[in-house]
C-alpha cells in the first residue's frame, strides 16, 4: 500500500544520502590531510631557510616554523577526530539502516499475513453465518487484536527509526562543527604567537 | 675574495629558499582550493538530502548547508588573498634577487678594476720613485678615493638588500598569518551559527 511504499522510499533516501555524506566527509578529511602534508613541507623549508640566515632573522623564522608546526599537530588531531566522530558513525549508519529495513520488512509481512487471515475469517463467517461453532467469535477477535498490535509495532519501529535518524544526523553534524571549531580556535591562538615571532625580528639587528 | 664569496652565497641562499617557499605556499593554496571544492560538494549533498526530509529537519539542514557554503566563500577569499599577498610577492622576489645580483656584480667588478689600477700605480711609483711627474700623487689619491667610494657603495647595496629582504619576509609571512587568521575567525563565527541551526532541529516536531 501507499504508506508502505512511502516508508520504504524514506529508508532508501536515508541509505543513499547518509552513504554520500559519508563519502564526501571522508574526501573532506583526505583533503585536510593533504593540506597538513603541504604545511609540514612548508615548516621544514622555513626551518632550512632559517639555517642560512643571520641570528635575529634565523631565530624569528625558527620560532615561526615551530608555531606553524603546532598548527599542523592540531590539524592532525582534526583529521583523526573527524575520522572517528563523523566518517565512522556515518559508515556504521549504513548497517543500521539495513537492519531497520529488515525489521520493517518482517513487521510488514506479519501485518500482511494477519490482515489476510482476518479477511478469510470474515468471508467464512459471511458465507456460513450458522457455523458459529467453527469460526469462533473469539478467534476473529484475536486476529483483529493481533493485526492492531502489529500495526502499532510497525508505527513504533518507524517512529523510532525517524527519531534515531534525526538524533544521529544532529549529533554527527554537531561533532563535525565542534571538531572544526576547536581547530579554528587553536589555529587563531597559535597564529597570534607566530605573528608576534615574525614581527619582532629586529630589522637592524643583523646588519 | 672571502667577503665577495660570502655575499654571493647569501644571495644564492635567498634565491633558492624564496623560490622554494613560493612553490610550497602555492601548493598550500592549491590544497586549500581542493578542500573548498570538496566542501562545495558537501554543501550540495546536504541540501539534496534536506529536500527528501520532513519540514523541521529539512529546514535545519538547509540552514546548516547555507552556513557551510558561507565558510567556503571565506575559503575562496582566503585562496585569492594568499595568491595575491603571499605567492605573487614571493614570485616577484625571484626577479628582485636577480636584479640585486646584477647590481652587485657591477659594483664588484668596478671595485676590482679600481683595486687593480691602484696596485699598478703603486708598483709604478715604487719602481720609478723619481717619476713623480708621470704618476701624479693626485691620480693615486683619486684612485684610492674611487676604490673607497665603490666599496662603500657595495656595502650599502648589500645592507639595502639585507634590510629589504628582512622587511619583505616579515611582510610576506605577516600577510600569510593575517589572511589565515581572518579565515579562521570568520569560520569560527559562521560555525557557531551552523551549530545553532542544526541543534535547534526539534526531534519530536516531524514525527
From TrEMBL, chains A, B:
It comes from the Eukaryota. Pfam families: FAM92 (PF06730). GO terms for biological process: cell differentiation; cilium assembly; spermatogenesis. It is found in: Cell projection, Cilium, Flagellum; Cytoplasm, Cytoskeleton, Microtubule organizing center, Centrosome, Centriole; Mitochondrion inner membrane; Nucleus. InterPro entries: AH/BAR_dom_sf, BAR_CBAR1/2, CBAR/FAM92. Coiled coil: none annotated. One of its GO terms (cellular component) is nucleus. The keyword Cytoplasm applies. PANTHER family: CBY1-INTERACTING BAR DOMAIN-CONTAINING PROTEIN 1 (PTHR21223:SF4), CBY1-INTERACTING BAR DOMAIN-CONTAINING PROTEIN HOMOLOG (PTHR21223). Belongs to the CIBAR family. This is Family with sequence similarity 92 member A. It comes from Electrophorus voltai.
Amino acid at each position: 500500500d501507499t504508506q508502505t511504499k512511502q516508508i520504504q522510499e524514506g529508508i532508501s533516501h536515508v541509505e543513499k544520502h547518509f552513504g554520500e555524506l559519508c563519502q564526501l566527509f571522508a574526501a573532506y578529511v583526505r583533503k585536510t590531510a593533504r593540506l597538513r602534508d603541504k604545511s609540514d613541507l612548508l615548516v621544514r623549508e622555513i626551518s632550512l631557510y632559517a639555517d642560512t640566515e643571520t641570528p635575529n632573522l634565523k631565530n624569528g623564522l625558527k620560532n615561526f616554523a615551530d608555531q606553524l608546526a603546532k598548527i599542523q599537530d592540531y590539524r592532525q588531531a582534526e583529521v583523526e577526530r573527524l575520522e572517528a566522530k563523523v566518517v565512522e558513525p556515518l559508515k556504521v549508519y549504513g548497517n543500521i539502516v539495513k537492519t531497520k529495513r529488515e525489521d520493517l520488512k518482517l513487521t510488514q509481512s506479519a501485518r500482511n499475513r494477519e490482515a489476510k487471515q482476518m479477511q478469510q475469517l470474515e468471508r467464512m463467517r459471511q458465507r456460513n453465518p450458522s457455523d458459529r461453532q467453527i469460526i469462533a467469535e473469539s478467534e476473529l477477535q484475536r486476529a483483529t487484536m493481533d493485526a492492531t498490535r502489529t500495526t502499532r509495532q510497525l508505527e513504533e519501529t518507524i517512529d523510532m527509526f525517524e527519531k534515531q535518524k534525526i538524533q544521529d544526523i544532529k549529533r554527527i553534524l554537531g561533532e563535525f562543527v565542534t571538531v572544526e571549531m576547536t581547530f579554528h580556535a587553536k589555529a587563531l591562538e597559535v597564529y597570534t604567537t607566530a605573528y608576534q615571532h615574525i614581527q619582532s625580528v629586529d630589522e637592524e639587528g643583523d646588519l
